[in-house]
Design goal:
The complex is a heterodimer. Chain A is mainly alpha-helical. Chain A has helices spanning 6-15, 22-43, 74-78, and strands spanning 84-85, 88-89. Chain A is flat, with a radius of gyration of 23 Å. The chains are: A mainly alpha, B alpha/beta.
Amino acid sequence: MATLSRSDVEHVAHLARLGLTDAELARLELELNHILDQYAILAGLPTDDIPPTAQTIELENILRDDVVRPSLPVAAVLANAAATNGDFIVVPAILDER
Amino acid sequence: MTDLTRLHAHEMAVLLRTGEVSSRELTETHLAAAERDNRALNVWLTIDRDRALAEADAADARLAAVRTNPDRALDLLRPLVGIPVALKDLVSLAGGQCTAGSRILEGYRAPYDAHITERLREAGAVILGKTNMDEFAMGSSTEHSAYGPTSNPWALDRVPGGSSGGSAAAVAAFHAPLSIGTDTGGSIRQPAALCGVVGMKPTYGRVSRYGIVAFASSLDQIGPFARDARDAAALLHAIAGRDDRDSTSSPEPVPATLAALPAGDDEAAGSLRGKRLGLPREYFVAGMEPGVEARVREAVAALEAAGATVEEVSLPHTDYGLATYYIVAPAEASANLARYDGIRFGPRLGDGDVLANYLATRGRGFGPEVKRRIMLGTYALSAGYYDAYYLKAQKVRTLIKGDFDALWTQGFDALVAPTSPTVAFRFGERLADPVSMYLSDACTLPVNMAGLPGVSIPCGMSDGLPVGLQFIGSAWSEASLFGLARGYEAITADADWRGLEPTDLAAAAEPETPTPADRMRAVE
């Protein structure tokens, strides 16, 4: 199985949007490789003809009636946001002004 | 007058109905114990005295109305009216904090009740507060809580197990007769075993997860803790069933027998006769403590003496469970935890653009175990590795589930096994090596992979610490598993360990007793 280099760890941290310190990255490089070593046992198990199991109970296509139901009040939703303005949550600009 | 905290919930229910005890008295007594012990144990992240007493008064009014008005007699069927309950701090309670043991939810107030909170309110239960847990339910010791670890009531220098360690310890320490936990890989059964209480992980889909902080959505399930099988079954009965706000909750009917386990020991013991149980040989794993194995084998012998047949069986893919679980669970967690972005709730850290905010909020808001699992899961799902890890693990999951299905086809009523390979371990003992911590769940996580119900019940002591016995059943067999647990309780009702109690917590309430956080710092 693959081993993770320091730059792999940095790449995964970026994908996960985790800001990690150098010490954390160094420790994770060791720990993740140690854990990945445990995964190696799976490679020896033949599974070509085995279908995957995503969930264990036989439920499918659970749909509710297409009727309007009340949602949470806007004030209750906004109450937990770090920054609000009127009925909106304030975030840093994502698009540049042109 | 006996100490009210020593009563089982079904005994409290009788006293409440006759009026010998009020819910206010019960609630006051439990709140006092919780408040006295919390410095030494750190079981509770919030104790909500005022609201609990208001709920107790409402329950007393409801009970009084039933006593004076026979038309309200149907209410008597509600066994939880006026009974104190603890919630793991990932269950939403409108207006209350819901940290999931994480800094990233500090200050968050749940805007609505979880489905099970609504059900408990309808049932008239009194919610005392919210209990400590491993951050986002990731851990087997409660040492990964951002709010400090919880101590095991049986030995204050040891962990209560996890992730639902606070809920297990609350019941073991007589702070509540009932509590709620969640179990993704063993997070109800393993702490139940380590704290000497009953804990069940129901079938996947048995209880609606609406309003519960999600960890791994194909595995998570909510379940009860109690000090006996009857109480745990009654609590499950109160919260189980289909809810259209959780599309994974099942329409499978909830059997009334859950709320009607035999009260008499003779009837309960007699129900074991003719039961066919499998003893999976792979669950006696390397590293299992001899004292744990001895207690489990004694329990098996007692079940046989009571008329059950026990046959050694094989679950041949058990050894693949750990690796499979530690791909599937982190992968699902990495997706579920993407929502913690500092925008809609929780603290927002960092200056500058959105990306800088994400990196700072998540980098500083999550603790080390959560970061480890997000990293693992993100890697397992990333381009080029999906087939080798996540898809492979889902295929092995099919094989693990197939191992169990083959035994149900052969006609076994249930499997009997250890819950945890060891008794409660010391603070710090497994923190340095994540894999050693993960092995705590070797006997429980295959059950989650297969979506099955499992219950852990006390079966004696090893080195002065509780040992847990696990019954595992086919899907929707919770009532039958509780029947077995109740039968085992009946045949061991006179065992000398039944009378044992945890550490003298009144003495531990002295200010010189180290806190759990002190104890963990001392070993780091």
